[in-house]
Amino acid sequence: MSSITKPLIVTRKLERNALGLTRLDYEGEMSTLCAGCGHDAITAGIVQAFFDLALPPHRAVKLSGIGCSSKTTAYLVSQGHGLNAVHGRMPAVASGANAANRSLTYVGISGDGDSLSIGLGQLCHAIRRNVNMLYVLENNGVYGLTKGQFSASTDVGSKSKRGASNQEGPIDPVLLALSLGATFVARGFSGDKEQLVPLLMAGLQHQGFAFVDVLSPCVTFNDHEGSTKSYTFIRKSRQEAAGFVPYQAEIATQYGAGSVQPITMHDGTVLYLRKIDEDYDPTDRAGAFSYVSERQAKGEIVTGLLHIKQDGGDMHDRERTVATPLRDLSFDELCPGTAGLDRLMDEYL
Amino acid sequence: MSGNGRTERSEAPEEEPPARVNDFAFKVATANGTGSASANGLILKAIYRMGIPVSGKNVFPSNIQGLPTWYEIRVNKNGHVARTPRFDLIVAMNPSTYAQDISEVVSGGWILYDDSWPLAKSLIRQDVTYIGAPLARMCVEKFAGARERILMKNIAYAGALAALIGMDVDIMQQLLEETFARKKALLGSNHTAFTVGYDYVRENFGLLPVRLEAMEPDGEYVMMDGNTAAALGCIYAGATVAAWYPITPATSLMDNFRELCKRFRTEPDGSRRYSILQAEDELAAAGIVVGAGWMGARAFTPTSGPGLDLVSEFVGFAYYAEIPCVFFDIQRAGPSTGMPTRTQQGDLLSVAYASHGDTKHIALFPGSPEECFYLSVQAFDLAERFQTPVFVVSDLDIAMNDWRTPRLHWDESYRWDRGKVFGEEELAQLKTFSRYLDVDGDGVAARTVPGVGAEGAYFTRGSGHDRHGRYTETEEGYQEVIDRLLVKLETARRVLPAPVIEQHEGAVAGLVCLGSSDAACSEAIAALAERGHQVNKMRVRAFPFSNDVGAFLRRHAIVFVVDQNRDGQLRTLLLSEVHTDRTKVHSIRHYSGTPLSADHVLEDVLPVLEPHDARRRPPHRSTEPPLEALRIMSR
Lengths: 349, 635
Ligand SMILES: Cc1ncc(C[n+]2csc(CCOP(=O)(O)OP(=O)(O)O)c2C)c(N)n1
Ligand code: SF4
Ligand SMILES: [Mg+2]
Description:
- The complex is a heterodimer of chains A (349) and B (635).
- Chain A is α/β, with parallel strands linked by helices and 349 residues long.
- Chain A has one domain: Rossmann fold (3-Layer(aba) Sandwich).
- Chain A contains 11 helices and 11 strands.
- Chain B is α/β, with parallel strands linked by helices and 635 residues long.
- A 7-stranded mixed β-sheet of chain B has the order 1-8-7-6-3-5-4.
- Helix content of chain B is 38%, strand content 19%.
- Chain B folds into 4 domains: 7-211, Pyruvate-ferredoxin Oxidoreductase, domain 3, CATH 3.40.920.10; 224-406, Thiamin diphosphate (ThDP)-binding fold, Pyr/PP domains (Rossmann fold); 424-495, no CATH class; 500-633, Rossmann fold (3-Layer(aba) Sandwich).
- In chain B, helix 2 links the parallel strand 6 and strand 7 (105-114).
- Chain B is globular.
- In chain B, helix 1 (36-49) runs parallel beside helix 4 (146-165).
- Classes of the chains: A alpha/beta (349), B alpha/beta (635).
- The structure holds thiamine diphosphate, iron/sulfur cluster (SF4) and magnesium ion.
- Magnesium ion binds next to helix 4 and strand 5 of chain A.
């Protein structure tokens, strides 16, 4: 649930899903993020996806690292267990939790700092492991929580709030995931629910690691120009008191398949999102890679379900784990007892 | 130098010394990667099967092929089988270390070498006996192919050695049959190689005064290393999720766990009641274990010093978020990469207070493979009961060397202790569930596991939280939880494995040690008793220390604390955690990378107990810890 911009009193009649639950059953604590933060819109999208799929909320497991984005696990599906790990280390915790119990629905939420800087290694290896989970990277091109430093997805030439210009090349999480052999790769935009919610739903249903990079404006710290996927905050005409964070309205859009949609950000810069064509073949990994990189060279950010491999076999298939969640196995199923030990001891005589 | 003679008998000693039965030490010098390890293992096992207390210490390089490696075997009818640096016999099979090896044999000792090539004159000592056997030449005659010749030379020196020290050949034959039960072709060549070495030495030399005689063992034993026993403990404790990143000397723990899982945890259709994940590093391995523990599975990761540094981030998280998990720290010589294949006890302080902020962790210190098994099982119970990381702190000596250890037994009445976990039933009786609320004063709050239902759902975080698990930055909310963690550890302290104390009538001092130091300390104490000094011994088995530990320190006018590290870390821990007069505490430290020997202990104890004895040289190390250690102690 997001703060400030959303009405707190629900007036219209509540819609119910197949489990007889309302959207409220999928909400969480009140968000403490800045008004207009893209992350809140993604939270709403995840809530919607859970609701639409009629997933039992108490079977949800929400994991995250550290950052504004990572805080949002607390703002959704409060009937499920949540865990804020240490910075950049959520993929490992998710791998372990999933190894212990394959029967729950796993959602990991992370930021570009959390996933592409400090946690890059863990992300890569969770992809390789093909942990069955939805992994949402809330990508704002900046470290929000530590107040606006460059992240690993900041573009060359982007300026920080203090005027420094970033000179290190960005990591594109989608190309990264494709090259690592991710079995589900998608990109969305926090402001485009029409596209985002189905992507999240598909990711939740995917058997394996479903990676969704979501462009998510940081209204407070992304203060630079000339970037393909950043959201400069120009305050030319405005005098601000120190520590004042202006309220902003969420940026929303809707556009058709195959089209390029210019999106004007809070600061007036324009972001060109290209929605993949209807005849785009997401099963072709190499094709996906060239499609995304070619458009990128033209200054377009491709969105949509970019790649899917359905028979990928998740971590449990590969490890041949039993169907019963490991954590539910009884002691008798695990301990070989006296007979086992005696036989074994005879081999060490 | 050898000319046509095969033995280089020096002038002295003139007479044959009297036979010394079941009380000697020898070492085998080879190059690694030549297959000598299996021959050495056979020698060790044959002696062990003769019922004689024996130990084998593998001194090996951090390398795959061609560097010197040694295998030290000690037999002692009284059971004192700690490492000794005094070797009666050297099996010198590596010309590149001849000089060093020959210099290490005691005066009056023996050197078995391969006289297919002559020995350099400079290597001849007048006070030892040289026994030359043309092992390589004989193997060339018997076997075709370079590989087989190299491999079989190892079994040939085992044969030669067997003839010198009176090894039971029937037992050896039996061992060869067991070893090569599934490779019958190899059995024949191994038998031939053994016989070649054996017959040659029997015909040309005969028995040495240091020799073996079968004994009736005083109990039921097995020959096992600590990592095998610890892996077995993980199986018996019901651990299902294991994560790791390979590192010596922890790797074999996971290798063993995997083998045991294949055997005991595999369904007929091949599906597995376990999951072993090889992570990208130890930090991720720790995260996996934390995730699995949070989910309600028993999970562990084995690592060593360099990995300990990496896991610390998650250790702090699990401590504060109160997540059960088990870490094995198989210590090796640090700092940094240090000496990966050498032993030490240098991680005690790092383990005790791992991670930043106020933390303190439960650690168990097995002193033998036997304890590696029992304490591993207990570690999982403690982790779940106290919802916290638990360390099993072993070392390379225990972990990777084969020990004659009491046969393991399983108590069928044992049931795992899952601690306070609320399921649907318990939750139904509650108005509200508060994750970090201590209702009965033991410092432990009930937890729930994911999937249990909305009533039991909560948010786990390493950031400030109150008794309900809610994010907090308030003084009271934060401090209440932090204070309760201390209460919890205090409860744990009372149930952790007690120290093992050995008391003697009229004792003048007390000696404290832990882990693999035990055997050397026992031997030193026996030697001290012979000199008229009775010394009590306490082997610490857990941190935080129980009240018995403090009482032992306070009860003795003189206390020796034995450490296998430079800075006296056990001493530091004791002095910072226990009230006692620090001036009476003497630090004994050995940290060269070899296992501790009784000599090392005596060297530092005797000057304290016999200060006026002019015969004793002053110790080359002071008994005060160096400045660094003092600084840590006073923090
Ligand atoms: C080990 C460690 N180093 C640094 C930090 C400080 N820190 C907290 S959040 C953050 C960056 C978060 O950036 P991102 O993941 O992009 O999240 P955002 O706030 O932008 O959503 C940093 C550096 C930390 N918590 N832990
Ligand atoms: S700082 Fe940026 S990322 Fe963080 S809450 Fe505010 S808008 Fe969102
Ligand atoms: Mg960010």
